[in-house]
Amino acid sequence: MMSGAPNDRELLGARHRLVETLRQKGIRDLAVLRAIEMTPRHAFVPTGLRHRAYEDAPLPIGNGQTISQPWVHARYLELLHLAGKERVLEIGTGSGYETVLLAHLVAQVFSIERIPALLQQARENIQRTGVNNVSLLLGDGTIGWREYAPYDAILVTAGAPSVPKPLLDQLAEGGRLLIPVGDREEQRLVVAERKGGRIEMREEAPVRFVPLVGHHGWSRSDEP
User: Fold this and answer.
1) Rounded distance, CA 83 to CA 103, Å?
2) What CA–CA distances, in Å, run from 81 to 25, 31, 86, 112?
3) What is the pLDDT of residues 171-193, one digit of tens each?
4) What 3-state class would DSSP assign to 5?
5) pLDDT digits (tens, 9 = 90+) for 19-71
6) CA within 20 to 30 Å of 89's CA: 8, 95, 119, 193, which one?
7) Beta-carbon count within 10 A of 2 CB
8) pTM for this prediction
9) Would you call 68 a catalytic residue per the annotation?
10) Three-state DSSP class for residue 174
């Protein structure tokens, strides 16, 4: 897809190896693996960390935020059972990596980021990939993006003390919401699904994300 990044070809082998690593760790969704194969993760991390871009590990991206380890991205996407026609809301754009993965998998992505510098960085990163089915918003992700609701899937990439009600309200019938819920240090990945007008929830796995800051999340004073 991309890329114009000067060392993209040099890192292509590392990207192939990452895909094989994810496959060996149990990721089976071929569309998800293909999206990871298509997306140059090194273009979404700081220049000084690009040599580590294809490790299966989280990396700092500035402003106290991180890009999750690739296995977490892949598992998130796999749990949504995406078919390609969905309208998806992402809470926490970060550097835009997961946003672009989603763009390869669904019809339309709406993504909210609360930190202006990160949103600008993500906008530039996303534009360089050439995807054109992404809309970005600077704001409080815990209240969602009501103008384009309902969403077939909602992904939250930060840990919340509880599931924000506005996000549940913006979930379409049959839609799934993925969100880490717990304290600021450790969470459980919760999958919420709307069935017959009711919300069913289950826990998937222990995870560790930065705090979800906003009206229905942690306050700024709660940040580390």
Assistant:
1) 12
2) 18, 10, 10, 22
3) 999 999 999 999 988 999 999 99
4) coil
5) 999 999 999 999 999 999 999 999 999 989 988 999 999 999 988 899 999 99
6) 8
7) 15
8) 0.91
9) yes
10) strand
